[in-house]
Amino acid sequence: MKKIIGRCFNGILILALTFVLCPVIPAMAQEDLSAYIMEGSVITGYSGPGGDITIPASVTGIADYAFAGNTSISSVTIPGNVTSVGSYAFSGCTGLTSAVISGPASLGGGAFYGCSALGYVELPAGLSAIGAETFDGCGSLGVVNIPEGVTSIGAQAFNGCGSLGSISIPGTVTEIGSSAFNNCVGLSEITFPSSVSSMGSGVLAGCSGLSSVSLSAGISSIPELTLYGCSSLSSITIPGSVGSIGSQAFGNCSGIGSISIPASVSSIDFSAFDGCSNLAEVNIEGGNGSYASSDGAVYDAGMSQLLFCPIGKSQLTLPDSMTSIASSAFSNCPYVYNLEIPGSVTTIEVDAFTGSGIKAVTIPPSVTSIGSQSSWTPDVIRGYTGSQAERFADENGYIFESIGNLGEDPEPDPEPKPDPEPEPEPEPKPDNNDSNNNNNNNNNTGGNSGGTTQTGTGGGTNAGTRTSVSRNMGTAQVGSGTPKTGIAFDARYVLCLGVFFAGGYLVISKKKKKVDVE
């Protein structure tokens, strides 16, 4: 009886084990690794048909270049059992459109480099770093969510991702490599959290669609080429933590019209603004120990040297405090055509005007040193004869226009002349007709047939004043023949009356004598 019970128990146990092990045995038999080239549990190559693939559960790693250049794979799922993906593991998989990654703590550099059709990627929650060039050249990639926990984004990690419209950078990221988002032309906005303390050059270079950017308040510098070619960017706020601005940092940002530099900035490479064709104002915040600004231009802190004139400036008034113009101050500044230099300036450095559009410049005699200016041909240089300005113009074959002689005091402005006093109105002249009638009545009277009467003293000789009276009484000559008016006119009038009465008296006397004779 006991033997029967024992046999039954063994049978049941065997049957139970059969039911338990049967699902496992087929499953293990179904995991086909023939399409993979393996080294232990690490895939080093792939020879399968492509299409949609899922990395087997027994795999723990994918080696460098394991799937590189395979154009037949359309999607890949990497489960949590895979702990690492090597450098350029899927590079050049131009048919790959989707990648779902669940497990690796890191992605090797260039893991998906050149996967031009890759439009969707899902990154694992435990990811700690995105290596250099990880998604470089993935031009179809539209959205990427970088998970919390990532501390670094490598150089060129998203370079050339032209379809990338938005990206979220978590507060755990402290370092962003050079050109990380270079040429992401579809990116319209991006915010760098304050956790970012290190940023490489050209991080956002060529992002021509970028219209809004918030830089990290934790960075100490804006490296070269950071925003180069971001032509849609109309404004930028520089954090108060920044101490230096590198060359071409804002180069060719043609949409920026003005920019404010915080007091913390102590070093500016002024090529940072090359190609900013609309930039007309650079304002330095008060309290800056290295720079100051006036009329939108940048000077040293003491306002004694002009350092930079913005490219978009069309007019510039220079302060009387400045003593020199620095090299390249007007470099690539094409819209300032006329410049008047104040009398406080003594030095114009080499190439101060090189590449500028200045056509006419007035140089005061205070300037005693002018450096050579390459690639600059003004229409005219104005200055004082004998001054350094004239010598400079002569030495370089420029037209010189003198505004005075050296050492001459400028002519004072003429004093205003007083208004002239009004002349007295002439007295009315006698009627010419009456004078002519009187002369006709007295014709040939007293032996005076010429209509002219001479009067004098001392026997009628030329001992006295001579007066001539015309027949129409219009002119009188006295003494030397100088015309007289006023009182002279009254004398003529009296003389005429005398002649009239004298003539009348003679006529009456003749008639009386005739009567007496008869």
Give a short synopsis of this structure.
The protein is of the alpha/beta class and 518 residues long. The protein contains five helices and 35 strands. Among the domains are: 96 residues; 84 residues.
Task: Characterize the structure shown.
With 518 residues, the protein is of the alpha/beta class. Among the domains are: 220-315; 323-406. It contains five helices and 35 strands. The strands form ten sheets. A six-stranded mixed β-sheet has the order 23-24-25-26-28-30, covered by helices on one side. A five-stranded parallel β-sheet has the order 8-10-12-14-16, with no helix packed on it. The protein has a four-stranded mixed β-sheet with strand order 1-2-4-6, with no helix packed on it. Strand 34 (476-478) and strand 35 form a beta hairpin. The protein is elongated, with a radius of gyration of 53 Å. It starts with a helix and ends with a helix.
